[in-house]
Write a sequence for this structure.
């Protein structure tokens, strides 16, 4: 109980939680008061590692989520944003699978994952280039999503179809070994696609020789945060330590290697219960004064958002000379999506020599840091803000606030039970639009 | 009623398309199969309604979450 803020949040103990979750799942008519509790767990499984009876609340919660989805009782608002983000990563805007230029076969395919591509696209380019110089037999590239958000959301159908797409592309590339940069992707493939030969980028770099490294470590000692998904992967953890050792980076441990903890992103907990997720990350970042180093893009992003100085191992291997990478801000949800699309365009242009023109016809927005923060907190993307303004300006269906002189407009892109109405308060400034406020609701007004 | 006819205490929102002041009126709010009558400011001509931020993030959010847990 002491090891987990989620378990502590509900002020009882696992045996009782299991009963509550079972009861919640059995309600036919009435209020399902346990919905949020079921969806607030990170699914990291640390409880099962610590518990003398090996009771894993993550497995209990995942099973309950799958049951809620199957019976149509999963609240749409809890995972809809993360699943839309995942859907973007599986579209042609980001997804692709190719042999290396000049190759008609691949012995290996690099799978950087959606979140590393979203937060550090430069590192993906560098790592892919490095792997192509070090590994023989052709190193292909696969951009896409491993399906982890669907798995965590209890969406067995979506998870299966996502894994099916990955398998199809892997077979099309000639069944190469998959090298993942993200330990969640590694976990998904290893646990759910046993036919796929999967390796971690860290063990590969450890074996084939790593880059010399740059001087982006500003402090003499860093503390290692192992992603929770590497808890049973001692070889990956040790490879990272050897890589850091060869680079001359001094490090301290935050915990025993078999007891890795979640950063606050796992299991989509932050989308279902931000208060608990905040407690998880605050607890983790308070464990050491040192800068943190990790090898999961989401862990690094969560720490950066909380104000903790944190590095990704790729920052050390491929970072810009002289850059204080530990101070790099999290790009935010909108930029993450934009970065993915740009990464694909850039790779096609720079690696495969294709003539790619970027789409620059987006509405130009002026957004203050305050509004930017509200967009992030309210899970509203710039793309949705642009869509509202575009629709209002095209149709003329908008409101004018005579007091402020601002325009107010709304739009409800998409359809289905999870769709959202977005309101934007804005005003034109030349050819651009100043965004003054944003908010949303799910109820449909008509 | 034209936009120039605003009186003291009247709404400060105008429908840009119809050039009408928004007035209080009944609209329908629905979510997950449940429907409720709600009093909102709306255009008397085209019916476009305004949902204030405080309502969207307050009472409306509470009702949405209650419906999701049913």
């Amino acid at each position: 109980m002491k090891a987990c803020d989620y378990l502590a949040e509900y002020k009882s103990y696992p045996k009782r939680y299991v009963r509550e979750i079972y009861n919640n799942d059995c309600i036919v008519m009435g209020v399902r008061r346990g919905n949020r509790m079921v969806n607030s767990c990170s699914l990291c499984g640390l409880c099962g590692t610590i518990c003398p009876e090996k009771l894993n609340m993550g497995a209990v919660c995942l099973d309950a989520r799958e049951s809620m989805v199957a019976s149509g009782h999963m609240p749409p608002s809890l995972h809809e944003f993360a699943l839309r983000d995942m859907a973007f990563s599986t579209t042609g805007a980001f997804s692709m699978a190719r042999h290396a230029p000049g190759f008609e076969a691949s012995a290996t395919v690099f799978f950087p994952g959606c979140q590393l591509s979203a937060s550090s696209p430069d590192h993906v380019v560098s790592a892919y280039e490095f792997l192509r110089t070090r590994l023989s037999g052709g190193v292909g590239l696969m951009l896409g999503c491993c399906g982890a958000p669907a798995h965590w959301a209890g969406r067995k159908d979506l998870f299966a179809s996502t894994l099916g797409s990955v398998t199809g592309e892997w077979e099309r590339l000639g069944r190469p070994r998959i090298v993942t940069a993200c330990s969640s992707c590694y976990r998904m493939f290893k646990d759910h696609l046993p036919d796929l030969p999967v390796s971690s980028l860290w063990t590969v770099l450890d074996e084939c020789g790593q880059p010399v490294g740059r001087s982006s470590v500003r402090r003499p000692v860093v503390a290692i945060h192992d992603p929770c998904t590497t808890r049973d992967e001692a070889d990956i953890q040790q490879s990272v330590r050897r890589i850091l050792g060869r680079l001359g980076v001094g490090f301290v441990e935050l915990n025993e290697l078999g007891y890795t903890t979640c950063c606050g992103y796992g299991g989509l907990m932050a989308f279902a219960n931000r208060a608990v997720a905040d407690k998880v990350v605050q607890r983790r970042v308070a464990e050491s004064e040192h800068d943190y180093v990790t090898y999961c893009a989401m862990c690094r992003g969560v720490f950066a958002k909380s104000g903790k100085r944190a590095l990704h191992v790729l920052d050390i291997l491929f970072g810009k000379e002289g850059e204080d990478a530990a101070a790099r801000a999290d790009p935010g949800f909108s930029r993450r999506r934009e970065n993915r699309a740009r990464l694909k365009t850039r790779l096609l242009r720079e690696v495969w020599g294709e003539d790619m023109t970027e789409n620059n016809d987006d509405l130009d927005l002026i957004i203050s840091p305050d509004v930017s923060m509200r967009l992030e907190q309210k899970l509203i993307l710039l793309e949705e803000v642009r869509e509202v303004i575009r629709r209002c300006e095209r149709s003329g269906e908008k409101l004018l606030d005579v007091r402020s002189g601002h325009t107010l407009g709304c739009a409800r892109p998409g359809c289905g039970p999870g769709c959202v109405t977005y309101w934007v308060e804005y005003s034109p400034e030349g050819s651009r639009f100043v965004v003054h406020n944003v908010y949303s609701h799910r109820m449909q007004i008509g | 009623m034209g936009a120039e006819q605003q009186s003291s205490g009247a709404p400060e929102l105008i429908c840009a398309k119809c050039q009408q002041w928004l007035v209080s009126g009944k609209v329908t709010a629905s979510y997950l199969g449940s429907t409720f009558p709600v009093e909102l400011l709306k255009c008397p001509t085209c019916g476009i309604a305004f949902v204030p931020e405080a309502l969207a993030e307050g009472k409306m959010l509470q009702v949405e979450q209650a419906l999701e847990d049913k």
User: Anything to note?
Assistant: The first strand of chain A starts at residue 96 and ends at 98. Residues 365-441 of chain A form one domain. The mean pLDDT of chain A is 94.
